[in-house]
């Protein structure tokens, strides 16, 4: 029987980005790709499933990020705020160090009870780190055309992002263009695809097609990748409000290179996994 059978979960969201949290700090095994897809197929839907796992060093705990298609990511901004808020509420701590595949993330309680700031680390822009399939001259505008979209900026903020600059995020059909770009041969590990409209030197409107999850109400890492790419290309300053379908996130790209993302997180409901979900899955 799956170790997840009868295990409690917490359903949360960060600006409508749906996060299912599973506490595995007792050392229980993480969901397999098959189990992750089975949970989603059961009707308990989410964009990402995030685990709480035992720390390996000085960190408070570790996390693993699983997209709804079972693939794993190195970073999830909205989900990190969710799990941080959950553990802050449990422990009373106002600062947490969270180990992840993309590095250690520092989460700090914000000025309102639902607000969390996460230090998302330092972005990478070299083509090998995105990663891209081959060298390009300038990662601020790479030679790629997807229908009417062209020359995206690319960045890695723990996961790969391509940002297409547009005049109106509603003008293009991201549902059709997103998966074509996600699977383009330029991106050997696929990519999260954004449409970004810079509306002021400190404001961006953003719509995101997420790798492994599709269209979401918000993507924290896309907001970070877009903000740093906008600043890097002279479109904005280093402090911006990024407005997604689910609401606004504040992103500050500090002079020392670190990205600070601030936004809300909320708990929706709790439950336990029905063992029937896992019948026939490879545990
Ligand atoms: N929703 C997330 C990003 C989740 C991971 C992404 N889909 C990937 O595969 O890299 C966020 O808020 O950052």
Automatic annotation (TrEMBL):
Catalysed reactions, as listed in the record: (2S,6S)-2,6-diaminopimelate = meso-2,6-diaminopimelate
InterPro entries in alphabetical order: DAP_epimerase_AS (IPR018510), DAP_epimerase_DapF (IPR001653)
Gene3D superfamilies reported for this sequence: Diaminopimelate Epimerase, Chain A, domain 1 (3.10.310.10)
PROSITE patterns: DAP_EPIMERASE
GO molecular function: diaminopimelate epimerase activity
Enzyme superclass (EC): isomerase
Pathway noted in the entry: Amino-acid biosynthesis; L-lysine biosynthesis via DAP pathway; DL-2,6-diaminopimelate from LL-2,6-diaminopimelate: step 1/1
Its EC number(s): 5.1.1.7
Principal location listed in the UniProt entry: cytoplasm
Site entry (Could be important to modulate the pK values of the two catalytic cysteine residues), positions: 161, 210
Cytoplasm in keyword set: yes
Catalytic residue list: 76, 219
Keywords: Amino-acid biosynthesis, Cytoplasm, Isomerase, Lysine biosynthesis
Cellular localization per UniProt: Cytoplasm
Protein family according to the UniProt entry: Belongs to the diaminopimelate epimerase family.
Chain's role: Catalyzes the stereoinversion of LL-2,6-diaminopimelate (L,L-DAP) to meso-diaminopimelate (meso-DAP), a precursor of L-lysine and an essential component of the bacterial peptidoglycan.
Protein name, as recorded: Diaminopimelate epimerase
Lineage: Bacteria, Pseudomonadati, Pseudomonadota, Alphaproteobacteria, Hyphomicrobiales
Name of the coding gene: dapF
């Amino acid at each position: 029987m799956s170790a997840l059978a009868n295990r409690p979960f917490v359903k949360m969201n960060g600006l409508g980005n749906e996060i299912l949290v599973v506490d595995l700090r007792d050392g229980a095994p993480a969901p397999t790709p098959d189990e992750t897809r089975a949970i989603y197929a059961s009707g308990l839907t989410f964009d990402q499933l995030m685990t709480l796992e035992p720390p390996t060093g000085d960190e408070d705990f570790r996390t693993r990020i699983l997209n709804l298609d079972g693939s794993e990511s190195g970073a999830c901004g909205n989900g990190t705020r969710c799990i941080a808020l959950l553990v802050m509420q449990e422990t009373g701590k106002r600062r947490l160090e969270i180990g992840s595949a993309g590095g250690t993330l520092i989460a700090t309680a914000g000025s309102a009870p639902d607000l969390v700031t996460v230090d998302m680390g330092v972005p990478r822009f070299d083509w090998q780190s995105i990663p891209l399939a081959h060298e390009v001259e300038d990662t601020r505008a790479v030679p790629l055309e997807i229908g009417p979209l062209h020359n995206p900026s690319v960045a890695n903020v723990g996961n790969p992002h391509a940002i297409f600059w547009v005049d109106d995020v509603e003008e293009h059909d991201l549902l059709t263009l997103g998966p074509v770009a996600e699977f383009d041969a330029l991106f050997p590990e696929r990519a999260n695809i954004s449409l970004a409209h810079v509306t002021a030197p400190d404001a961006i409107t953003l719509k995101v097609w997420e790798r492994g999850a599709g269209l979401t109400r918000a993507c924290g890492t896309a907001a970070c990748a877009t903000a740093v790419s906008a600043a890097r290309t002279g479109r904005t300053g280093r402090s911006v409000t990024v407005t997604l379908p689910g609401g606004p996130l504040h992103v500050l790209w500090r002079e020392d290179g670190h990205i600070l993302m601030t936004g809300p997180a909320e708990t929706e409901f709790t439950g336990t996994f029905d063992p029937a979900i896992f019948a026939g899955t490879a545990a």
